[in-house]
Amino acid sequence: MLEFHHLKTESKRPRMRDRGIYLLPNLFTTGALFAGFYAVVQAMNGRFEHAAVAIFIAMVLDGLDGRVARMTHTQSAFGAEYDSLSDMVSFGVAPALVIYEFALQGMGKLGWIAAFVYCAGAALRLARFNTQLDTVTDKRFFQGLPSPSAAALIAGFVWVMVEYGVPGQDVRWLATALALFGGLSMVSNFRYYSGKEINLRKSVPFFVILLIVLAFILVSTSPPEVLFGVFVLYGLSGYADALWKLLHRKKPSPLPGGEK
User: Fold this and answer.
1) Fewer CB within a 10 Å sphere, N or C end of the chain?
2) φ and ψ at 198, to 5 degrees?
3) Hey, what's the torsion of the CAs at 152, 157, 158, 162, to 10 degrees?
4) Alpha-carbon span 1 to 7, nearest angstrom
5) What parts of the chain have a pLDDT lower than 50?
C-alpha cells in the first residue's frame, strides 16, 4: 500500500484559513481604503471638497489601525501588507487623481507627468519604508515625507481653493509645483519627525491636555486653512532640518603646530 508523505516545508506552512485575520485593525484599514476610493469617485464627479475631506478621513483611520493593532496585540503580516496596499490607494493614487482632475487636467503632458511623479513617489516611499522597517535605528524620524502627510498637503490645497472659490485653472502652476514637491519629498532622504516615541499610556502635565483642547478649537474654527498650513510647515520641516545640519556642520579641527 502506497504512503504519501508531505514535505516538511508544506506541513509547517500555515495557511491563511488556519491563521485567521484579526478583525479590529483591519476594519480601520478597510475604512481608510474606502475613504481613498471615495475620494477618487468624488473627484471624477467634480466634488473636490468631498474628495479632500475623504483623504483626511483616510489619514485618521490609517493612523488608528496601527496603534489599535499594537495596543490589542493583533499585529500580523497580513495586516501590514493590507495596510501598505490601502496606503497606496488612499495616499498615492487618490491625491494624484484629485489634483489632476482639479487643476492639472488642462496642462497637457506636464499635468499628468506631475501627477504621475507624485503617484510614483508614494509607491517608492511605501516600498522603501517596508524594506527598511527592521533596519531603522532611530524611530523618532521618518526618511522622506510620509505618504499620508503628502496626501494631506494635496488635499488641504484643494480644500482651501474650493473654500475660497478659486478655480483650479487659475492655480495650475502652483498645483504642479505642489505635486512635484510632494512626490520628490517622499523619496528624499530628509528627516521628518515621526512622533512614535509618544506614549499614550503615560501621564502628562495638565497644560498638555489644555494644548490639545486649544488645537481642536483652532482646527474647528477654519479646518481647510489650519490643516493645510500645518502640513505645509511639516513638509518644509525636513528641508529646514537638512539646512540646519548643513549650517552647523562641525568643521575639522586644525592640526597641532599649524600644520595643514
Assistant:
1) N
2) -70, 120
3) 130
4) 19
5) 1-14, 16-18, 258-260
Residue with cell 502628562: 204
C-alpha cell at 252: 575639522
Give the model confidence (pLDDT) of 158-205 as tens digits. 999 999 999 999 999 999 999 999 999 999 999 998 876 666 667 667
- As a whole number of angstroms, the distance between CA 159 and CA 115 comes to 17
Closest CA to 155 of 211, 82, 103: 103
The pLDDT, as a whole number, for residue 150 is 95
The backbone torsions φ and ψ at residue 195, rounded to the nearest 5 degrees and listed phi first, read: 75, 15
Task: Provide the 3-class DSSP secondary structure of residue 141.
Answer: strand
- The end-to-end CA distance of the chain, in Å, is 86
Q: Where are the alpha helices (DSSP H) in the chain?
A: 8-12, 16-19, 23-44, 48-71, 77-88, 94-99, 109-131, 147-163, 172-186, 206-221, 223-247
- Considering only CA atoms, which of 106, 113, 95 is closest in space to residue 39? 95
* Predicted structure pTM score: 0.83
Q: By C-alpha distance, which of 121, 118, 155, 152 is closest to 231?
A: 152
**What's CA 120's distance to the chain center, in Å?**
13
User: Which residues, at least 6 apart from 48, have a Cβ–Cβ distance to it below 8 Å?
Assistant: 42, 98, 101, 102, 158, 159, 162, 168
Q: Which residue has the cell 503580516?
A: 77
Q: How many helices (H) and strands (E) does the chain have?
A: 11, 2
Amino acid at 31: G
Query: How far is it, in rounded angstroms, from Cα 94 to Cα 7?
Result: 44
